[in-house]
């Protein structure tokens, strides 16, 4: 004897689960995307360029540019003393370009002595920056000095603080060189210098110059993360496959129950 039930058929709970899984997938994808977003990690805290030219006639010119925000954007400094006559002459110039990940600078100084005398010229580039994460770096420099023995050029990158130390260093004797490595998080100072100084020397000329680049690279780019809609589709596909399997198993179970009912009757 078979009895009919007036109870409403149970609705499959998978529809609600589908919506929940899709929503969870979208939330997970957006969280992963936010977590792997690239962080700048570089802050220029101080930047200064200074050039100076002076002669024995107590004539002096200086120029300096301070950029607390950290950008020079190809501006040029230059001075020259004096421009005529057989008297000591001195000149200096500098061109620099700074952005968040690339530091480029060129500076030069020169002096000429006529009938003795004293002259002095210098060009100094100074940059302080802070890294909140590690970065690889690459760069190159050319340092040169000639003529008067008082002429020299130098470049130095130093990490400050308790774990500090010299990272890159060179002088006119180094000449042209390349450098690369990894900078840990911390505070750094980069200084380039070109200077010519002379007293009553038999040499009547002195020249010095620096040119450098320092480029910061992210050492560990974040792994590729599926776009949110791709992740949602993939999870929805897996869920859909599960629904198909459940329906097949339900159909097979119904068929078995039907056969069993026939055998009992």
Question: What can you see in these coordinates?
Answer:
This protein is an alpha+beta fold and 265 residues long. It has a domain at 42-217. Helices cover 22% and strands 46% of the residues. The protein has 2 helices and 12 strands, in the order H-E-E-E-E-E-E-E-E-E-E-E-E-H. The protein has helices spanning 14-35, 228-264, and strands at residues 42-55, 60-66, 76-81, 89-98, 102-112, 119-131, 135-147, 152-159, 165-171, 176-183, 186-198, 205-217.
In terms of topology, how is this protein built?
Blueprint: H1 14-35, E1 42-55, E2 60-66, E3 76-81, E4 89-98, E5 102-112, E6 119-131, E7 135-147, E8 152-159, E9 165-171, E10 176-183, E11 186-198, E12 205-217, H2 228-264
Antiparallel strand pairs: 1-2, 1-6, 3-4, 4-5, 5-12, 6-11, 7-10, 7-12, 8-9, 8-11
Helix pairs in contact: 1-2
Please state roughly what percent of the residues sit in beta strands, choosing from under 5%, 5-15%, 15-25%, 25-35%, 35-45% or over 45%: over 45%
The termini sit apart by 9 Å
- Biggest sheet details: 6 strands, antiparallel
- Overall geometry comes to elongated
H-E string: HEEEEEEEEEEEEH
Radius of gyration: 36 Å
Number of helices: 2
Query: Can you give the mean pLDDT?
Result: 75
Number of strands: 12
The largest sheet has its strands arranged as 2-1-6-11-8-9
Which stretches are poorly predicted, pLDDT < 50 over at least 5 residues?
1-5, 21-39
Q: What attributes does this structure have?
A:
6-stranded antiparallel β-sheet; 22% helix; single chain; 265 residues; alpha+beta; elongated; disordered N terminus; 2 helices
């Amino acid at each position: 004897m078979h009895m009919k039930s007036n109870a409403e058929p149970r609705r499959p709970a998978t529809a609600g689960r589908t919506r929940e899984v899709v929503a969870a997938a979208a939330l997970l994808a957006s969280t992963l995307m936010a977590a792997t977003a690239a962080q700048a990690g570089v802050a220029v805290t101080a930047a200064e360029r200074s050039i100076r030219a002076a002669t024995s006639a107590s004539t002096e010119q200086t120029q300096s540019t301070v950029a607390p925000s950290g950008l020079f954007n190809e501006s040029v400094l230059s001075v020259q003393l004096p421009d005529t006559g057989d008297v000591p002459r001195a000149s200096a110039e500098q061109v620099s370009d700074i952005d968040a990940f690339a530091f480029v600078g060129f500076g030069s100084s020169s002096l000429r002595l006529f009938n003795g005398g004293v002259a002095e010229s210098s060009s100094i580039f100074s940059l302080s920056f802070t890294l909140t994460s590690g970065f690889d770096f690459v760069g190159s420099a050319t340092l040169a000095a000639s003529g008067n023995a008082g002429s020299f050029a130098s470049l130095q990158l130093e990490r400050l603080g308790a774990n500090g130390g010299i990272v890159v260093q060179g002088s006119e004797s180094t000449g042209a060189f390349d450098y690369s490595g990894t900078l840990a998080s911390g505070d750094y100072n980069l200084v380039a210098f070109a200077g010519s100084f002379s007293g009553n020397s038999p040499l009547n000329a002195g020249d010095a110059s620096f040119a450098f680049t320092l480029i910061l690279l992210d050492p560990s780019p974040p792994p590729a993360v599926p776009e949110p809609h791709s992740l949602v589709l993939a999870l929805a596909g897996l869920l859909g496959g599960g629904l198909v399997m459940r329906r097949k198993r339900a159909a097979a179970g119904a068929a078995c129950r039907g056969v069993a009912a026939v055998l009992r009757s």
